Amino acid sequence: MVNKPFIISISGDSASGKSTIANFIRIYYGYDNTTLISGDDLHKWERGDVMWNAITHLNPLANNLQLGDLQLMSLKEGAKVLRKVYNHNTGKFDQEIWVSPKKYIINEGLHSFYTTQSEELSDLKIYIDTDENLMTDFKIERDTLERGYTKEDVIETISNRKKDSEHIRKIQIEKANVIIKLSKLNGLDIECKTDVDYMLFNFIKRMHRELEEFVWMNIVLGNRTSITQSKGGNISSKVGDNLIIKQSGGKLKDIKYGKGYSIINYKDVDFKNIPTDNDLDDVLIALSSNTIYKKPSMETGFHTAFKKYVFHVHPIYLNCILSLENGKDIIDKLFKTEDFEYTYLNYYNPGLELTSKILNTNDIKDVVFLENHGLIVSSDDYYRCIDLISRINIFTKEYIRKNVNDFVEFTYAFYKISNKDIFTFPDAVIIDDYETNTAHNYILYYANQLGKIKELSNDDVEYLKNLKSEKYRK
Length: 474
Description:
about 475 residues, alpha/beta, Rossmann fold, L-fuculose-1-phosphate Aldolase, 2 domains, seven-stranded mixed beta sheet, six-stranded mixed beta sheet, about 20% strand, elongated
């Protein structure tokens, strides 16, 4: 290679946020320009090996660091290397793969520039110095949710590794060109010891802030069952050409700093002219195929049509009205004099149908009422979005209270009712769980008292049951 790859080595303790920062860098430089290698591939033993009873993963002797140095040297010289891959889901090594160098090589791991050779090969050395309490939270969250450990197991592991942790931190933090400090109180702070690409680190700061904000928004609304239920609903945030959005089949309330979402570059995708739902599914898979993320939500396309923040939710009280034949008349009566303009759309099936309708509707408003479905709210201020959703939820609840005789607020007692012959919204067809069934029963009960129900047609029900993208949510 005429120009040798630029090697960025990222080190830090277990669960310090190395992978997240590494991915921010890949987003900044572009996945097509970056090769990522993980230090965990250098573990000497697989999970469950008796050797781990005597030595910890953080101990340099438990890792083939010399092999890592040789491979890093080969990549620096433009040669591809055959590398085994450690699979955290199984605790085993996957089949070896060929790794080819690109313009930027991101070398991420516990000992990325621990050795003299790896230090010298690295053009930029970043140490992630995360507050101990925050790192403990990250590790408990990750290892219990993704790797099958108990909280007690994780705390014991942290204690056993403390000596090795302090050792590799002391060695590498002194060698680092850049120290990224993460803490609960102060967020992300960056200390640069040498001249660096400041635009890169400003981007890292911005992505960290945007991601923390995104997680908070999902927690706020994801835990309000009257607003969104089970795997329904979606929130997105645009950051330049990138879109942060829930991964397909996930729940808003399960989104964490390191999981549950996708970050995709959407600018070059023509969502407006995708011919079929299967083609849409293929496009979404392709958007995440070269990243660490899973397929983004099938609603990704219409999220690109709005402002920075887009909230798509399924408020139960609102859906009681949107499920009526005269639902639009009621919406017009309730909201005509409010401080927002809105679009009212007749029912379109989620996926390609709804995406195409929104993208091809001229002058789509920041508030969209979706017949037999829910609500879309968009703004450049996420507090505005949350405020509008809350107000719409309160207004529709009060309308129901005034127009039925036995009103009670949404309660899980409605789960005991059973009627699956009529469907008033898509999730009731697709998802068979506690929250969705309760919402389905509540809406049927009160919509029947408010007026004549406009149920989903048999064709729409069959369409939803066979929609490829919906298999992720079943």
